[in-house]
UniProtKB/TrEMBL annotation:
Protein's UniProt name: Tryptophan synthase beta chain
Gene: trpB
Keywords, alphabetical: Amino-acid biosynthesis, Aromatic amino acid biosynthesis, Lyase, Pyridoxal phosphate, Tryptophan biosynthesis
Source organism per UniProt: Phocaeicola coprophilus DSM 18228 = JCM 13818
Catalytic activity entry: (1S,2R)-1-C-(indol-3-yl)glycerol 3-phosphate + L-serine = D-glyceraldehyde 3-phosphate + L-tryptophan + H2O
Pathway per the UniProt entry: Amino-acid biosynthesis; L-tryptophan biosynthesis; L-tryptophan from chorismate: step 5/5
Amino acid sequence: MKTYQVNDEGFYGNFGGAYIPEILYQCVEQLKDNYRKVLDSDDFRQEFHSLLRDYVGRPSPLYLAKRLSERYGCRIYLKREDLNHTGAHKINNAIGQVLLARRMGKKRIIAETGAGQHGVATATVCALMGMECVVYMGKTDVERQRVNVERMKMLGARVEAVTSGNMTLKDATNEAIRDWCCHPSDTYYVIGSTVGPHPYPDMVARLQSVISEEIKKQLMEHEGRDYPDYLMACIGGGSNAAGTIYHYLDDERVKIVLAEAGGKGVETGLSAATIQLGKLGIIHGSKTLVMQDEDGQILEPYSISAGLDYPGIGPMHANLASSHRATVLAVNDDEALRAAFELTRLEGIIPALESAHALGALGKIRFRPDDLVVLTVSGRGDKDIDTYLKYLDEYTTR
Protein backbone atom coordinates (compact mmCIF):
# COMPACT_ATOMS: atom_id res chain seq x y z
CA MET A 1 0.00 0.00 0.00
CA LYS A 2 1.25 3.48 -0.85
CA THR A 3 2.22 5.59 2.14
CA TYR A 4 2.02 9.37 2.33
CA GLN A 5 4.34 9.73 5.32
CA VAL A 6 7.80 11.31 5.17
CA ASN A 7 10.76 9.13 4.13
CA ASP A 8 14.17 8.89 5.84
CA GLU A 9 15.57 11.74 3.74
CA GLY A 10 12.78 14.09 4.75
CA PHE A 11 10.79 13.91 1.50
CA TYR A 12 7.11 13.42 0.82
CA GLY A 13 7.30 12.12 -2.73
CA ASN A 14 9.12 14.86 -4.66
CA PHE A 15 8.67 17.47 -1.94
CA GLY A 16 10.59 18.30 1.23
CA GLY A 17 14.27 17.99 2.12
CA ALA A 18 16.52 20.52 3.84
CA TYR A 19 17.94 23.38 1.74
CA ILE A 20 19.70 25.56 4.26
CA PRO A 21 22.68 27.93 4.60
CA GLU A 22 25.87 26.32 5.87
CA ILE A 23 25.74 28.28 9.13
CA LEU A 24 22.52 26.45 10.09
CA TYR A 25 23.70 22.98 9.09
CA GLN A 26 24.71 21.96 12.62
CA CYS A 27 21.46 23.31 14.11
CA VAL A 28 19.30 21.38 11.68
CA GLU A 29 21.41 18.22 11.96
CA GLN A 30 21.23 18.39 15.75
CA LEU A 31 17.47 18.75 15.55
CA LYS A 32 17.16 15.91 13.03
CA ASP A 33 19.28 13.62 15.23
CA ASN A 34 17.29 14.38 18.37
CA TYR A 35 13.64 15.05 17.59
CA ARG A 36 12.43 11.47 17.21
CA LYS A 37 14.41 10.25 20.23
CA VAL A 38 12.93 12.99 22.40
CA LEU A 39 9.36 12.86 21.02
CA ASP A 40 9.24 9.08 21.42
CA SER A 41 10.73 9.06 24.95
CA ASP A 42 8.50 8.20 27.89
CA ASP A 43 9.38 11.31 29.90
CA PHE A 44 8.63 13.68 27.00
CA ARG A 45 5.34 11.96 26.19
CA GLN A 46 4.27 12.06 29.82
CA GLU A 47 5.04 15.78 30.22
CA PHE A 48 3.62 16.70 26.80
CA HIS A 49 0.31 14.90 27.28
CA SER A 50 -0.01 16.10 30.86
CA LEU A 51 0.27 19.70 29.67
CA LEU A 52 -2.15 19.09 26.80
CA ARG A 53 -4.68 17.75 29.29
CA ASP A 54 -4.24 20.07 32.26
CA TYR A 55 -2.98 23.29 30.63
CA VAL A 56 -4.43 23.30 27.10
CA GLY A 57 -7.71 21.59 28.01
CA ARG A 58 -7.58 18.62 25.68
CA PRO A 59 -9.23 16.66 24.32
CA SER A 60 -10.97 19.38 22.34
CA PRO A 61 -14.65 18.57 21.73
CA LEU A 62 -15.98 16.92 18.58
CA TYR A 63 -19.31 18.69 18.16
CA LEU A 64 -22.20 17.56 15.95
CA ALA A 65 -23.34 20.78 14.29
CA LYS A 66 -26.99 19.92 13.69
CA ARG A 67 -28.15 23.12 12.00
CA LEU A 68 -25.05 23.29 9.79
CA SER A 69 -25.57 19.62 8.93
CA GLU A 70 -29.14 20.33 7.90
CA ARG A 71 -27.96 23.18 5.69
CA TYR A 72 -25.53 20.96 3.75
CA GLY A 73 -27.44 17.67 3.79
CA CYS A 74 -25.01 15.46 5.72
CA ARG A 75 -23.68 14.92 9.25
CA ILE A 76 -21.04 17.54 10.08
CA TYR A 77 -18.87 17.32 13.17
CA LEU A 78 -16.68 20.26 14.12
CA LYS A 79 -13.34 19.54 15.79
CA ARG A 80 -13.20 22.45 18.21
CA GLU A 81 -9.53 23.52 18.28
CA ASP A 82 -10.88 27.04 18.89
CA LEU A 83 -11.60 25.98 22.48
CA ASN A 84 -7.95 25.27 23.31
CA HIS A 85 -6.04 27.58 25.66
CA THR A 86 -4.85 30.56 23.52
CA GLY A 87 -7.70 29.95 21.06
CA ALA A 88 -6.23 27.75 18.34
CA HIS A 89 -4.45 24.50 17.48
CA LYS A 90 -1.05 26.25 17.56
CA ILE A 91 -0.52 25.58 21.27
CA ASN A 92 -0.13 21.82 20.64
CA ASN A 93 2.99 22.35 18.55
CA ALA A 94 4.39 25.20 20.65
CA ILE A 95 4.37 23.12 23.83
CA GLY A 96 6.05 20.20 22.09
CA GLN A 97 8.81 22.24 20.46
CA VAL A 98 9.64 24.31 23.55
CA LEU A 99 9.86 21.11 25.60
CA LEU A 100 12.23 19.76 22.93
CA ALA A 101 14.28 22.98 22.93
CA ARG A 102 14.66 22.79 26.70
CA ARG A 103 15.88 19.20 26.48
CA MET A 104 18.41 20.29 23.84
CA GLY A 105 19.79 22.95 26.19
CA LYS A 106 18.54 25.99 24.24
CA LYS A 107 17.96 29.20 26.20
CA ARG A 108 16.33 31.50 23.64
CA ILE A 109 13.21 30.92 21.55
CA ILE A 110 12.30 32.68 18.30
CA ALA A 111 9.19 32.28 16.19
CA GLU A 112 7.37 33.73 13.20
CA THR A 113 3.66 34.44 13.11
CA GLY A 114 1.02 35.61 10.64
CA ALA A 115 -2.37 35.73 12.32
CA GLY A 116 -0.59 35.89 15.65
CA GLN A 117 -1.94 32.61 17.05
CA HIS A 118 1.41 30.80 16.77
CA GLY A 119 3.14 33.83 18.27
CA VAL A 120 0.72 33.92 21.18
CA ALA A 121 1.06 30.17 21.70
CA THR A 122 4.87 30.33 21.68
CA ALA A 123 4.91 33.36 24.00
CA THR A 124 2.52 31.53 26.32
CA VAL A 125 4.70 28.44 26.58
CA CYS A 126 7.84 30.56 27.03
CA ALA A 127 6.15 32.39 29.90
CA LEU A 128 5.17 29.06 31.41
CA MET A 129 8.73 27.71 31.15
CA GLY A 130 10.65 30.91 31.86
CA MET A 131 12.37 31.24 28.48
CA GLU A 132 13.28 34.31 26.44
CA CYS A 133 10.96 34.76 23.44
CA VAL A 134 11.22 36.90 20.28
CA VAL A 135 8.40 36.81 17.72
CA TYR A 136 8.74 38.14 14.17
CA MET A 137 5.56 39.45 12.58
CA GLY A 138 4.98 41.41 9.38
CA LYS A 139 3.99 45.04 9.97
CA THR A 140 0.81 44.50 7.92
CA ASP A 141 -0.17 41.66 10.25
CA VAL A 142 0.83 43.65 13.34
CA GLU A 143 -1.73 46.26 12.33
CA ARG A 144 -4.58 43.87 11.48
CA GLN A 145 -3.94 41.53 14.43
CA ARG A 146 -3.19 44.14 17.10
CA VAL A 147 -4.98 42.23 19.89
CA ASN A 148 -2.66 39.26 19.45
CA VAL A 149 0.34 41.60 19.40
CA GLU A 150 -0.68 43.00 22.77
CA ARG A 151 -1.24 39.52 24.13
CA MET A 152 2.30 38.51 23.14
CA LYS A 153 3.74 41.59 24.81
CA MET A 154 1.73 40.96 27.95
CA LEU A 155 3.15 37.44 28.04
CA GLY A 156 6.67 38.86 27.99
CA ALA A 157 7.62 38.28 24.35
CA ARG A 158 9.39 40.89 22.21
CA VAL A 159 7.47 41.42 18.96
CA GLU A 160 9.59 42.53 16.01
CA ALA A 161 7.54 44.20 13.26
CA VAL A 162 9.01 43.29 9.85
CA THR A 163 8.89 45.98 7.16
CA SER A 164 10.34 44.12 4.14
CA GLY A 165 8.26 42.75 1.25
CA ASN A 166 4.54 43.07 1.74
CA MET A 167 5.16 42.77 5.49
CA THR A 168 3.28 39.52 6.10
CA LEU A 169 4.07 35.89 6.99
CA LYS A 170 6.72 35.20 4.35
CA ASP A 171 8.69 38.25 5.43
CA ALA A 172 8.37 37.39 9.12
CA THR A 173 9.76 33.94 8.36
CA ASN A 174 12.68 35.47 6.44
CA GLU A 175 13.61 37.62 9.44
CA ALA A 176 13.30 34.74 11.88
CA ILE A 177 15.71 32.69 9.76
CA ARG A 178 18.16 35.64 9.68
CA ASP A 179 18.01 35.81 13.47
CA TRP A 180 18.65 32.06 13.67
CA CYS A 181 21.69 32.44 11.40
CA CYS A 182 23.09 35.10 13.77
CA HIS A 183 22.49 33.06 16.95
CA PRO A 184 22.79 29.41 15.95
CA SER A 185 24.21 28.01 19.18
CA ASP A 186 21.79 29.19 21.88
CA THR A 187 18.61 29.80 19.86
CA TYR A 188 15.81 27.41 18.98
CA TYR A 189 13.46 28.38 16.13
CA VAL A 190 9.89 27.22 16.78
CA ILE A 191 8.37 26.99 13.30
CA GLY A 192 4.60 27.19 13.51
CA SER A 193 3.55 25.12 10.52
CA THR A 194 4.50 22.10 8.43
CA VAL A 195 7.01 24.14 6.44
CA GLY A 196 10.76 24.72 6.55
CA PRO A 197 13.64 22.25 6.29
CA HIS A 198 13.34 18.64 7.42
CA PRO A 199 12.63 17.66 10.18
CA TYR A 200 10.23 20.56 10.86
CA PRO A 201 7.33 19.45 8.60
CA ASP A 202 7.36 15.96 10.09
CA MET A 203 7.89 17.16 13.65
CA VAL A 204 5.03 19.69 13.51
CA ALA A 205 2.72 17.10 11.94
CA ARG A 206 3.56 14.61 14.69
CA LEU A 207 2.92 17.16 17.45
CA GLN A 208 -0.39 18.20 15.86
CA SER A 209 -1.45 14.59 15.23
CA VAL A 210 -3.14 14.63 18.63
CA ILE A 211 -6.06 16.16 16.67
CA SER A 212 -6.68 13.11 14.47
CA GLU A 213 -5.85 10.76 17.34
CA GLU A 214 -8.73 12.31 19.26
CA ILE A 215 -11.02 12.33 16.21
CA LYS A 216 -10.69 8.54 15.90
CA LYS A 217 -11.64 7.98 19.54
CA GLN A 218 -14.43 10.56 19.55
CA LEU A 219 -16.03 9.29 16.35
CA MET A 220 -16.10 5.80 17.81
CA GLU A 221 -17.94 7.18 20.84
CA HIS A 222 -20.38 9.26 18.75
CA GLU A 223 -20.92 7.07 15.70
CA GLY A 224 -19.58 3.59 16.47
CA ARG A 225 -16.90 3.93 13.78
CA ASP A 226 -13.49 5.58 13.95
CA TYR A 227 -13.31 7.20 10.51
CA PRO A 228 -15.35 9.85 8.62
CA ASP A 229 -16.17 9.95 4.93
CA TYR A 230 -14.65 13.43 4.64
CA LEU A 231 -11.96 15.30 6.56
CA MET A 232 -11.84 19.04 5.94
CA ALA A 233 -9.42 21.76 7.04
CA CYS A 234 -7.90 25.02 5.84
CA ILE A 235 -4.27 25.19 4.67
CA GLY A 236 -1.74 28.01 4.71
CA GLY A 237 1.46 26.27 5.69
CA GLY A 238 -0.69 23.36 6.78
CA SER A 239 -0.29 22.51 10.48
CA ASN A 240 -3.94 22.15 11.49
CA ALA A 241 -4.63 20.20 8.30
CA ALA A 242 -1.67 17.90 8.98
CA GLY A 243 -2.93 17.25 12.49
CA THR A 244 -6.46 16.61 11.26
CA ILE A 245 -5.48 14.05 8.63
CA TYR A 246 -2.31 12.50 10.11
CA HIS A 247 -3.81 9.20 11.29
CA TYR A 248 -5.92 8.89 8.14
CA LEU A 249 -3.27 9.55 5.48
CA ASP A 250 -3.18 5.93 4.33
CA ASP A 251 -6.88 5.22 4.90
CA GLU A 252 -8.38 5.44 1.41
CA ARG A 253 -11.92 5.25 2.82
CA VAL A 254 -11.48 8.86 3.97
CA LYS A 255 -11.67 11.71 1.44
CA ILE A 256 -9.41 14.65 2.30
CA VAL A 257 -10.60 18.14 1.31
CA LEU A 258 -8.32 21.11 2.00
CA ALA A 259 -9.20 24.78 1.52
CA GLU A 260 -6.56 27.31 0.54
CA ALA A 261 -6.96 31.06 0.33
CA GLY A 262 -8.26 32.16 -3.06
CA GLY A 263 -8.14 35.84 -2.04
CA LYS A 264 -9.91 37.96 -4.63
CA GLY A 265 -9.78 35.03 -7.07
CA VAL A 266 -7.00 32.82 -8.43
CA GLU A 267 -6.86 34.75 -11.71
CA THR A 268 -6.73 38.23 -10.16
CA GLY A 269 -3.13 38.33 -8.96
CA LEU A 270 -4.50 38.80 -5.43
CA SER A 271 -4.46 35.26 -4.13
CA ALA A 272 -2.60 32.84 -1.87
CA ALA A 273 -3.79 29.67 -3.64
CA THR A 274 -0.40 27.97 -3.81
CA ILE A 275 -1.67 24.57 -4.97
CA GLN A 276 -3.58 26.22 -7.82
CA LEU A 277 -0.87 28.70 -8.79
CA GLY A 278 2.43 27.31 -7.51
CA LYS A 279 5.35 25.72 -9.33
CA LEU A 280 8.10 23.53 -7.95
CA GLY A 281 10.66 25.62 -6.09
CA ILE A 282 12.43 26.13 -2.79
CA ILE A 283 11.18 28.36 -0.01
CA HIS A 284 12.41 28.61 3.58
CA GLY A 285 14.51 25.47 3.32
CA SER A 286 12.04 23.11 1.65
CA LYS A 287 11.36 22.01 -1.93
CA THR A 288 7.65 22.44 -2.50
CA LEU A 289 5.08 24.30 -4.58
CA VAL A 290 5.78 28.03 -4.55
CA MET A 291 4.01 31.02 -6.07
CA GLN A 292 6.73 32.45 -8.32
CA ASP A 293 7.25 34.30 -11.59
CA GLU A 294 9.07 33.05 -14.70
CA ASP A 295 12.41 34.11 -13.20
CA GLY A 296 11.77 32.16 -9.99
CA GLN A 297 11.11 35.27 -7.92
CA ILE A 298 8.55 34.64 -5.17
CA LEU A 299 5.23 36.38 -5.77
CA GLU A 300 3.54 38.27 -2.97
CA PRO A 301 0.46 36.40 -1.76
CA TYR A 302 -2.80 38.00 -0.70
CA SER A 303 -5.60 36.82 1.57
CA ILE A 304 -8.04 38.49 3.91
CA SER A 305 -6.73 35.93 6.41
CA ALA A 306 -3.35 36.75 7.96
CA GLY A 307 -2.67 33.07 8.66
CA LEU A 308 -3.13 31.88 5.07
CA ASP A 309 -1.27 34.49 2.99
CA TYR A 310 1.86 32.38 2.48
CA PRO A 311 3.32 31.81 -1.03
CA GLY A 312 4.34 28.21 -0.28
CA ILE A 313 2.75 25.09 1.16
CA GLY A 314 3.98 22.31 3.42
CA PRO A 315 5.62 19.46 1.46
CA MET A 316 3.16 16.95 2.91
CA HIS A 317 0.26 18.83 1.36
CA ALA A 318 2.06 19.45 -1.94
CA ASN A 319 2.51 15.70 -2.21
CA LEU A 320 -1.09 14.93 -1.24
CA ALA A 321 -2.33 17.33 -3.91
CA SER A 322 0.04 16.17 -6.67
CA SER A 323 -0.77 12.51 -5.97
CA HIS A 324 -4.51 13.32 -5.83
CA ARG A 325 -4.84 11.92 -2.31
CA ALA A 326 -6.30 15.28 -1.28
CA THR A 327 -8.69 17.58 -3.09
CA VAL A 328 -7.57 21.19 -2.65
CA LEU A 329 -10.13 23.93 -3.25
CA ALA A 330 -9.50 27.66 -3.49
CA VAL A 331 -11.94 29.56 -1.27
CA ASN A 332 -12.13 33.28 -1.95
CA ASP A 333 -12.42 36.06 0.64
CA ASP A 334 -16.13 36.57 0.06
CA GLU A 335 -16.87 32.84 0.33
CA ALA A 336 -14.94 32.61 3.61
CA LEU A 337 -16.72 35.65 5.06
CA ARG A 338 -20.12 34.30 4.08
CA ALA A 339 -19.29 30.94 5.68
CA ALA A 340 -18.05 32.59 8.88
CA PHE A 341 -21.27 34.55 9.35
CA GLU A 342 -23.28 31.44 8.49
CA LEU A 343 -21.61 29.38 11.23
CA THR A 344 -22.01 32.25 13.68
CA ARG A 345 -25.75 32.49 13.05
CA LEU A 346 -26.44 28.75 12.78
CA GLU A 347 -24.29 27.39 15.60
CA GLY A 348 -23.25 30.35 17.75
CA ILE A 349 -19.55 29.80 16.94
CA ILE A 350 -17.40 32.65 15.61
CA PRO A 351 -14.52 31.01 13.70
CA ALA A 352 -11.13 32.42 12.85
CA LEU A 353 -10.91 33.70 9.28
CA GLU A 354 -8.54 30.83 8.54
CA SER A 355 -11.13 28.26 9.65
CA ALA A 356 -13.79 30.11 7.67
CA HIS A 357 -12.04 29.02 4.48
CA ALA A 358 -12.62 25.36 5.38
CA LEU A 359 -16.26 26.18 6.09
CA GLY A 360 -16.43 27.96 2.74
CA ALA A 361 -15.52 24.70 1.00
CA LEU A 362 -18.66 22.95 2.26
CA GLY A 363 -20.77 24.47 -0.50
CA LYS A 364 -18.37 23.21 -3.17
CA ILE A 365 -18.97 19.52 -2.41
CA ARG A 366 -22.03 17.43 -3.23
CA PHE A 367 -22.62 15.42 -0.06
CA ARG A 368 -24.93 12.43 0.37
CA PRO A 369 -27.31 12.33 3.35
CA ASP A 370 -25.34 9.52 5.03
CA ASP A 371 -21.94 11.20 4.61
CA LEU A 372 -20.02 11.76 7.82
CA VAL A 373 -17.89 14.92 7.71
CA VAL A 374 -15.31 16.16 10.23
CA LEU A 375 -14.19 19.76 9.77
CA THR A 376 -11.54 21.31 11.99
CA VAL A 377 -12.26 24.78 13.36
CA SER A 378 -8.60 25.68 13.77
CA GLY A 379 -9.14 28.81 15.84
CA ARG A 380 -11.66 31.24 17.25
CA GLY A 381 -12.56 34.54 15.66
CA ASP A 382 -11.82 36.99 18.47
CA LYS A 383 -8.67 38.16 16.69
CA ASP A 384 -10.66 38.85 13.50
CA ILE A 385 -13.52 40.84 14.99
CA ASP A 386 -12.36 44.14 13.46
CA THR A 387 -12.39 42.55 10.00
CA TYR A 388 -15.75 40.88 10.55
CA LEU A 389 -17.31 44.14 11.71
CA LYS A 390 -16.37 45.81 8.41
CA TYR A 391 -18.50 43.28 6.55
CA LEU A 392 -21.25 42.66 9.12
CA ASP A 393 -24.05 44.46 7.32
CA GLU A 394 -23.05 43.19 3.89
CA TYR A 395 -23.03 39.49 4.83
CA THR A 396 -25.83 39.28 7.41
CA THR A 397 -28.54 40.99 5.37
CA ARG A 398 -28.35 38.69 2.34
